[in-house]
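Annex B.
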Amino acid sequence: MKRARGAAVSALLAGALTLLPTAAAHADGIRAQQWGLSALHLDQAWHATRGRGVTVAVLDTGVQEDHPDLVGNVLPAKDMIGFGARPGDRTWGRHGTAMAGIIAGHGHGPGGSDGVMGVAPEAKILPVRVILEDSDPARAKARTTRGTALADGIRWAADHGADVINLSLGDDSASAHPEPGEDEAVQYALKKGVVVVASAGNGGDKGDHVSYPAAYPGVVVATAVDRYGTRAAFSTRRWYAAVSAPGVDVVIADPDHKYYEGWGTSAASAYVSGVAALVRSAHPGLSPAQIKTLLEDTADDPPAGGRDDSRGFGTIDPVAALAAADRLEPEKLSPASYPRRYFGPGPDAPRATASAADWAAPLAGSAGGVLLVVGVMLWRGRRHPF
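Type VII secretion-associated serine protease mycosin: predicted structure tokens.
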């Protein structure tokens, strides 16, 4: 994504936003269309935990806090951009609200039976606005300048209670480069015990370019599969793939209170962040490295040889991950800058090395390193243009 001073400015709604015809779908039919819930056996995982006590930071385009499927689960937001669309505008918060719903939606209506149910429905969402929606008119005027919104947002989330950071965003353009400030921010979060999850990219049919922040060390990277466990054609294949998760025909909540089907590795990242929240809820002492390894080691349907660049170690399995976590002892984190008894507020910001400075480049806009092309609108049987 191209970035403005102090702000990353590209939203992650990839490609053309095309509405497709759909059969009638009433609110009580939305849950039945959430195939990811049954594919991941979340009804079994919820016997152990539903994510209570965990905060997932959603670094995105904003989150609608009063959406009926999210109300009560959304903490006060932080805006790292400061311009562009505002809450209530049609070009604000669509992608972020969709991701928050996948992670921590609790549905609505009697017993929460209607609407979108998330992976960790008792987790809290910490919204941090670091990008603009693709349709935000402010994008055009912001493309020529740089900023640090993503790096700043990661650090802010790590300092304000995040247990998991979800990055359903990225740059997988042909000119993508690692940015030292973002790499350092990721390492800062990891050292503070925060699990960092990112989408692999949507460039599987466009050259499989490396995507950032997915390629930064320590990140749990999600690729996308369909309901049959097959890699989605758009899902980027690279060495950093850790696990796969649902990313095709995913039902999402929208600020307009309607429901849509979308696709992308952004959705897969949100699923993985939700599972990480379940593990952290049940075992708060586990380190980010332990949780990353745990998710990889317990993945279902591993590829031949145990791992490949298409699906990582296989499809994430929350039930197996929670069971295996019961057998782990937490690893103590070592402070980065306070080796004695006084630990202070957290590790100091790492200093960029000479070699890291050579990496510096703006995070370019990308239609491939992102989530979600909104597809089928599901709302009380109506067919309606986007």
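Residues 265-282 form the longest helix (18 residues). Residues 105 and 118 are 4 Å apart (CA to CA). Further annotation is deferred to the next reporting cycle.
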